[in-house]
Amino acid sequence: MAEQNDKTDNGSKILRSAKEWPDRLRASVFVLCLIGLAAALIVVLKNDLVNKKIIETQGAILDYIGAKGFAVEDVVVTGRNRTDMADIEKIVNLKRGDNILKVDVRQLKQKLETLPWIRDVRVSRSLLPNLLLIEIEEKNVLAIWQLNDRFYPLDTDGYVIEADYRPDKPILLIVGAGAAENILPFLRMVARISPEYLSRVKVANYISKRRWNIILDDIRHGITIKLPEDDVEDAWKKLVKLDVSQGILKRKLTIIDLRLKDKVTVKLRKSRPKAKKPAQQI
């Protein structure tokens, strides 16, 4: 083992072992120098013939560097939940040993973002230890949109997710033509005026592409709120005020009609007839 002696300020000696630089570190420095040189040449030289030669030379350099150990060892995917791994593998299309420097991360990102559940994705290389990293942010489902007896999941931006989906918990149901395009402004209005009521909205039915019928609390047995085509915000404020002052949403109602500006119409829930007691035999 090679050794060297150094002196400190006070004259005492420190014994240290001479460390050998790893081959991969030298190769990394070599790679950075070559890539920097190639990039500088491409910027300075604009002639098509020269650029073509530079590209060919750059490709040869990358091939050489890849042969020196810069090959794909693993592809690590994080954030995947609903996205099919087979779909990711089909797009990535890499095998162990491929030159990691030749992976076009920008193009790979664009292709992955075409998958239905992916909202955003980050693709990067980790040269040590030769990993390709794919960090996925998937879309969240805001609601299920029912149109002509078909059901479509909507993301939080109000766009249809072109994929099969089965909710694992109760979720907002919106119904009717035009509902998908208009649901976000309505929900934002509710959240701004009365955020505590937002989770109570279970069904939003867009009637004739003009106005909303909203079912609160329970899809089958909740109260239906009929909102007007115009002045929806004022109508919703009126509903909240009636609930706070008179507890209107706690009453046994099936419909609260707010379509008329100066009038509120309600419909009482029908009481179930009491079961007749069987006649007693003497």
Compact summary:
Helix content is 33%, strand content 27%. It is an alpha/beta fold.
Q: Topology of this structure?
A:
Layout (H helix, E strand, L loop, with lengths): L2 E5 L5 E5 L5 H22 L3 H20 L6 E5 L6 H8 L12 H8 L5 E9 L4 E8 L2 E7 L2 E6 L16 E4 L3 H15 L1 H4 L2 E7 L3 E6 L6 E4 L5 H15 L6 E5 L7 E4 L14
Parallel strand pairs: 3-5, 6-8, 8-9, 11-12
Antiparallel strand pairs: 1-2, 4-5, 6-7, 9-10, 10-11, 12-13
Helix pairs in contact: 1-2
Instruction: Report the β-strand fraction as a percent range.
Output: 25-35%
Q: Summarize the amount of helix as a percent range.
A: 25-40%
Straight-line N-to-C gap: 113 Å
Categorize the overall geometry. elongated
Kindly report the spatial arrangement of strands forming the biggest sheet: 7-6-8-9-10-11-12-13
Class based on secondary structure composition and strand pairing = alpha/beta
CATH class of the largest domain: Alpha Beta
Query: Nearest-angstrom radius of gyration?
Result: 33 Å
Count of domains: 3
Low-confidence stretches: 1-21
CATH architecture term of the largest domain: 3-Layer(aba) Sandwich
State the major sheet: 8 strands, mixed
Q: Name the CATH homologous superfamily of the largest domain.
A: Cell division protein FtsQ/DivIB
Order of helices and strands: EEHHEHHEEEEEHHEEEHEE
Contiguous helical run count: 7
CATH topology of the largest domain: Rossmann fold
How many β-strand runs?
13
Summarize model confidence as the mean pLDDT.
82
